[in-house]
Every structure is written in structure tokens, then in C-alpha cells.
Design goal:
By secondary structure, this protein is an alpha+beta fold. Helices cover 48% and strands 14% of the residues. It has nine helices and seven strands, in the order αααααββααββββαβα. It has a five-stranded mixed β-sheet. β1 and β2 form a beta hairpin. It is globular and about 55 Å long. The two termini are 32 Å apart. The relative contact order is 0.13. This is Mycothiol-dependent maleylpyruvate isomerase metal-binding domain-containing protein. InterPro entries: DinB/YfiT-like (IPR034660), Maleyloyr_isom (IPR017517), MDMPI_metal-binding (IPR024344). Pfam families: MDMPI_N.
């Protein structure tokens, strides 16, 4: 039983607790009047736009769960390649909503999403398939991780815009590490050179370890394993892996062939 494995029901209470803590952190950052128009790490976005983006994303989750329970046709997944442009347009469309109104809407959406996730039973946590607008069918637990990505990474974005030194909270980073491998798999650049090669990834934290990554014509695969005989290994702490995968930083320590590591790190578009 691993309470830090959000893909298992044993980790449900842990991830929902950490999501709430990160959400409350973002609410506090966004509430001062002077914060609303302050810049963030997201190009062209102020705190207002970050809030609008999470509103749009969360309300999309409601539609996804309705579809999963027979409430409608989810249609074809939009794909991650076009996600950046679309979420920008969706966020900017809410710029006219007053600060208090939009924050109240975000808080209400957050509580509604927490209720949906809390009501999931053990069979549903991993067994209920829910159609994600951008990624297609996903297990229900991914939506808890999606909320954590939204609140933890975007809180980081708001703090980064302030110019003050800061970091990513450890519990959030640890919970997100397994999902970063999935994100890498889903964000390989169109037309990327997929001539086969292998590389090692070493990650710190409770969900860390050593992973052998293979890249080839079918994309990227990974599995826990020893790193012996690999041409290069990239070492990350949990937070650095999350921020690198999301394109917020270029982090990691490369041991071995720098060219192999460079090739790997540049396989992906960032979201």
C-alpha cells in the first residue's frame, strides 16, 4: 500500500489533500487586488489569466465526467499539439469577468471537482475511463493529477512572476513525478528523429528511482531498471523534473554523452 502512488486508491486521500493545499495557495496569491494584473511565468498571462485558465480546464472536467457516466458524446480528442493556442484563447475570453466573480467561480469549481473525485470508489479510481478533451480516454485518477498540475505548476508561475526566489513544494512534486513520464510520451514533437536510442533518468523523492527510457519509431517507453551501459543519464530532483517537463526550466544534471541527453530533452514540445 503506497499512499504516495496517486494511480492507486491508496493514494487518493494524499493527492486530494495536496491538491487542496495547492489550490488554497493559488487562491491566496490571486486575491490581492494588485496581483490580478501582475505578470506570471506564462508568456502574455497575468494572474487573472491563470485563474481563467483553471476555470476553463476544471469546467471541461465536469463535461468529461458527465460523458463518462453516459451524459454525452465526448467526440474526438483535440490533441496536445494544439492545446497551447486553445487554452490561451479560452483564458483570454474570460478577461472581462471581474476579479471577485472569477475567483468565486474558481473556488466553486474546485469544490465541485473535489466532490466528484472524493465520491469515486476503489473500482472507479482506476477503472472508470473519462474522456479528456485534449488527451482522450484516461483513468479517473488522472483528473486528480490534472488538478494538481494546474494548481501547483500555476502557483509556481504566479510566484515566478513576482521575481522572488521560490521553489515547487515537495509533496506536489513527488506526486507528479510518475505523470511526467506520461506527459513526455504524449508530447513528442511531430517529425522528431525517432532513430532508436536509450537513456537513463534518475529522479529523487518518494516516487523517484532509476528508469531506463527507450525511444524508437513507436515513441517513448520507460521502465524502472538499472542504468548500467547507457550512454547518458539525466539526474533530476522531483521539482526540477516537473518544471523541466512543463517547460518552466532547463534543469537536470547530465552524466555521460551530452549529445544523447540534448537529443532526448529536445524531443518534446512543452505545454
Amino acid at each position: 500500500m503506497n499512499e504516495w502512488d496517486a494511480t492507486s486508491y491508496a493514494g487518493k486521500d494524499t493527492i486530494l489533500r495536496v491538491v487542496r493545499e495547492e489550490a488554497e495557495r493559488l487562491f491566496a496569491l490571486a486575491e490581492p487586488e494588485e496581483a490580478w494584473e501582475a505578470p506570471t511565468a506564462c508568456t502574455g498571462w497575468t494572474t487573472r489569466d491563470v485563474v481563467a485558465h483553471i476555470v476553463d480546464t476544471t469546467e471541461g472536467y465536469f463535461a468529461a465526467f458527465d460523458a463518462a457516466r453516459g451524459g454525452g458524446d465526448p467526440g474526438t480528442a483535440y490533441g496536445l499539439a494544439g492545446m497551447g493556442d486553445r487554452v490561451n484563447a479560452q483564458a483570454l475570453a474570460l478577461r472581462g469577468v471581474p476579479q471577485k466573480e472569477l475567483l468565486d467561480r474558481l473556488k466553486a469549481d474546485f469544490e465541485r471537482m473535489q466532490t466528484i473525485l472524493r465520491r469515486l470508489g476503489e473500482d472507479e479510481w482506476a477503472g472508470l475511463t473519462v474522456p479528456h478533451f485534449y488527451m482522450g480516454p484516461l483513468p479517473a485518477y488522472f483528473y486528480a493529477a490534472g488538478q494538481l498540475m494546474d494548481y501547483a505548476v500555476h502557483s509556481w508561475d504566479v510566484r515566478q512572476g513576482s521575481g522572488r526566489a521560490h521553489g515547487l513544494p515537495g509533496e506536489a512534486a513527488d506526486l507528479l513525478v510518475p505523470f511526467m513520464f506520461v506527459l513526455w510520451q504524449s508530447t513528442i514533437r511531430q517529425g522528431a528523429d525517432l532513430t532508436p536510442f536509450e537513456i537513463g533518468i534518475r529522479v529523487g523523492g518518494v516516487n523517484g528511482g532509476d528508469f531506463r527510457v527507450s525511444v524508437g519509431a513507436r515513441g517513448m517507453t520507460y521502465e524502472p531498471g538499472g542504468l548500467e551501459g547507457l550512454p547518458a543519464v539525466i539526474e533530476f530532483d522531483a521539482g526540477s523534473m516537473v518544471l523541466t517537463t512543463f517547460g518552466r526550466s532547463n534543469s537536470g544534471t547530465v552524466r555521460g554523452d551530452l549529445r544523447v541527453a540534448d537529443r532526448y530533452l529536445n524531443l518534446f514540445f512543452r505545454i
